[in-house]
Task: inverse folding
């Protein structure tokens, strides 16, 4: 081993590369002193048989430096690994930023496929012929499929056919309605009629086929408010295992062009997918009113929704296990097109209950109520001429509340008399206290 030529003192320091990652104090600093070697040549490395003390010292330094370089190597590997991980993370974050900066896609619907291109309707109703992302499975590209479109070229980027509009998807009443035919009083004929038109074709489709009969597609329930139309639809849903999709007509009357029509289309698509299914549209007059020469765009949109409803009703076979029940308080407003054969084939008129029907309704409504023995429901039924089922319910509720407020255990005749006069007052001045709204 030779002595260094320079006379300055070299400092061998492991943290001389200046990494901020290096844990402080892990690497030792060594100082080489020329006095460790002999002044002239440094060849004088033995004292007798044992090595010169300077040689021992230098070997020790070499050993320490070797282990130090090992530590530095491990440290280097560790840091390289860390750098790689940080690079990966940075590139993931770059991707995320790029996705967040991307312009939004437009949602549209395929109307037709023409060779390698598609006819699509964008959400604002305009129709375009556009190209298709070649990576999309052609099986999925069917008319009616919901797709995302590039903002500039309107090319189809992706098929989104699994999603339903929230209004349509929430129309599905997952839990079966609890109403049964036994809960409905005084409507035996109407119950029979709706069971023939809706329940039988769903439960015994073969019987219709054998008879050469085409089962009705839909039933229209008409009658004054609170006469049990909704109850009837719920009881039918309960008696069959069909999926029940319930909507109020006004929910389908949308503001934007094409929206209402799309909802109707999606409603029928969902029903076909979930078949056997019953679609119940309450207050159908809000989209099914007679077509007038209307000038406002809102009216025109409602008419487009009606046209879509008509075309959907025409577009499926009555054997397809999808039935439609619609209800209205104002049948005189309905467009005649809705009542043509093949649409609402059966109209069930539900009138105000007569005395015997009122008696039956009162019996049902009071079956769980502790009544004083002296109460004569038949007499109450006679006194409530012109009352709807909903008003009878309000009467029973009022009598029960009077009994509770008096601290009685049984509902008495006088509770019913007082309740009757309250309800009659409300009937004269419905705005004073809307019981139908409260209890209906
Ligand atoms: P609307 O036209 O206002 O929607 P509706 O004809 O659909 O009214 P329902 O909502 O079915 O009437 O009835 C309201 C309430 O009146 C029911 O919850 C029920 O308690 C009572 N009701 C009406 N008719 C009957 C009936 N025939 N038997 C028993 N209860 C009845």
Result:
């Amino acid at each position: 081993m030779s002595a260094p030529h320079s006379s300055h003192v070299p400092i061998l320091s492991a943290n001389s590369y200046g990494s901020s990652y290096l844990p402080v104090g892990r690497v030792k600093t060594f100082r080489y002193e020329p006095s460790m070697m002999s002044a002239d040549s440094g060849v004088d490395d033995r004292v007798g048989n044992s090595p010169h003390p300077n040689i021992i010292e230098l070997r020790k330094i070499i050993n320490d430096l070797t282990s130090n370089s090992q530590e530095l190597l491990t440290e280097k590997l560790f840091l390289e690994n860390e750098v790689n991980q940080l690079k990966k993370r940075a590139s993931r974050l770059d991707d995320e930023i790029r996705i967040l900066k991307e312009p939004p896609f437009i949602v549209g619907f395929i109307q037709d496929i023409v060779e390698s291109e598609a006819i699509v309707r964008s959400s604002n109703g305009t129709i375009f012929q556009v190209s298709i992302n070649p990576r999309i499975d052609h099986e999925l590209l069917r008319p009616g499929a919901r797709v995302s479109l590039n903002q500039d070229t309107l090319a189809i980027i992706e098929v989104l056919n699994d999603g339903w509009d929230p209004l349509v998807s929430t129309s599905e009443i997952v839990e079966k309605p609890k109403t049964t035919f036994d809960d409905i009083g005084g409507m035996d004929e109407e119950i029979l009629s709706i069971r023939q038109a809706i329940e039988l074709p769903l439960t015994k489709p073969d019987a219709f086929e054998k008879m050469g009969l085409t089962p009705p597609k839909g039933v229209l329930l008409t009658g004054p408010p609170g006469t049990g139309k909704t109850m009837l639809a719920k009881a039918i849903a309960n008696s069959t295992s069909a999926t029940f999709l319930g909507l109020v007509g006004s929910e389908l009357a949308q503001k934007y062009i094409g929206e209402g029509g799309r909802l109707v289309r999606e409603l029928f698509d969902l029903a076909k997918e979930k078949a056997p299914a019953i679609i119940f549209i309450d207050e159908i007059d809000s989209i099914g009113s007679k077509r007038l020469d209307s000038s406002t765009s809102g009216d025109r949109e409602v008419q487009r929704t009606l046209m879509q409803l008509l075309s959907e009703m025409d577009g499926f076979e009555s054997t397809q296990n999808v039935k439609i029940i619609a209800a209205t308080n104002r049948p005189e407003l309905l467009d005649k097109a809705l009542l043509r054969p093949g649409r609402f084939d059966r109209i069930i008129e539900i009138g105000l209950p007569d005395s015997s029907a009122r008696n039956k309704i009162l019996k049902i409504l009071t079956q769980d109520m502790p009544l004083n023995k002296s109460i004569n429901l038949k007499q109450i039924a006679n006194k409530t001429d012109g009352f709807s089922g909903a008003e009878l319910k309000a009467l029973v509720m009022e009598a029960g509340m009077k009994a509770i407020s008096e601290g009685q255990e049984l509902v008495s005749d006088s509770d019913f008399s007082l309740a009757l006069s309250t309800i009659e007052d409300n009937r004269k001045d419905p705005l004073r206290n809307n019981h139908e709204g409260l209890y209906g």
